[in-house]
Amino acid sequence: MSRVSLRSLAKSFGPVQAVKDVTLEIPDHAFVTLLGPSGCGKTTTLNMLAGLEKVTRGEIYLDDQAVTQWAPHERGMAMVFQNYALYPHMNVFGNIAFALQLAKVPKPQIKERVQKVAKALELEALLERRISQLSGGQQQRVALARAMVKEPKVFLFDEPLSNLDAALRTRMRSEIKKLHQQLHATSVFVTHDQEEAMILSDYIAVMREGLVVQYGPAEDVYRRPQDIYVATFIGKPRMSTIAGHLRVNGQDGIMTFTTDGINLSWPHTPQDGSINAIDTDVQLGIRAEDARVIAAPSSPLADTFTGEVSLVEPLGSDTFVEITRGPHAITTRVEPDRRLKPQESVIVQLPRHKLHFFDAKTGKRINL
Q1: Which residues are within 8 A (CB) of 14 and not within 5 positions of it... i.e. 6 or more apart?
Q2: Same domain, yes or no: 169 and 193
Q3: What domain range is 20 assigned to?
Q4: E strand or H helix at 46, and its extent?
Q5: How would you label 61-100 residue by residue, b for 16+ Cβ within 10 Å and e otherwise?
Q6: pLDDT digits (tens, 9 = 90+) for 286-336
Q7: What average pLDDT does the chain have?
Q8: Of 166, 144, 44, which Cα lies nearest the Cα of 92?
Q9: Domain limit, last residue, from 218, 233, 248
Q10: pTM
Q11: Contact 76/152 with Cβ under 8 angstroms?
């Protein structure tokens, strides 16, 4: 078992509150990512979990055991750092074996465990090489092997892929995911890259200014963002938003959204059958894969508007198109063989069940 609980965790550096009040329940075997921009408190939270930073307030539990005051080596965790933190004067074997040697593990057992992880990470032929003789990807695998050989209860990753080029980052991302699936260990991963978070994670904790603003399964965070910050931070390309006015008629259940040059309406039938009247300013959100560029219908559709292509971004497997209408712009994804040109007039459909609405004042999700 290796459940991790962070309870009202806080960290201050003098007058600066880096982490304000973080409470998370990390299930056994789960891969959880702390996601957010620089300065949001995610690395400080990870360092407190590892025991590298003292906790100002709150508690850390591993399973049902409080470990808040324990030293790092007592917690049964292994950390992979952003800069790898390898020892340049040692060869690959020495780097992987170092923690076991400190723990006075018998030499035959050290050799056996090092060879086991070296085989898993394809490092067997590199064990006698110096760190300076390795590529960036090879150094990253050595850092992973050094963590694996300790057979920890929890793996901690502090932006371990940020120093790699794009191709190598993609490959190492796959290796980390395979490693997690093989070891069934609990993993906590820190990154500012939302694409990385979506690919790797079972659960995502989105952080902002020292707080967790949303935590849940990765698909839920993507599909049901609880505020405009999460909605526009998660997703690539980012969610398009349009400021306007939303009205829901409580009698006939018709939803209307109006803004400069755009008037849309949809029938609204909630699953529970109840319809609440709404009349408020909102931000409408739509993801690129959910907005549809359609052929001209035989009769006007209430959930469409006409716009102009302003930018085409072909990416091979996908093409992203920015479409404008007056001061508003949205990004859509179209088939790669669909040839659209700048200044071309197109019809965009915004299906009701794919839309997100956020209160214009609070930024909070409006559940309809």
Answers
A1: none
A2: yes
A3: 4-233
A4: helix 42-50
A5: ebeeeebbeeeeeebbbbbbeeebebeeeebbbbbbbbbb
A6: 999 999 999 888 788 999 999 999 999 998 888 999 999 999 999 999 998
A7: 91
A8: 144
A9: 233
A10: 0.90
A11: yes
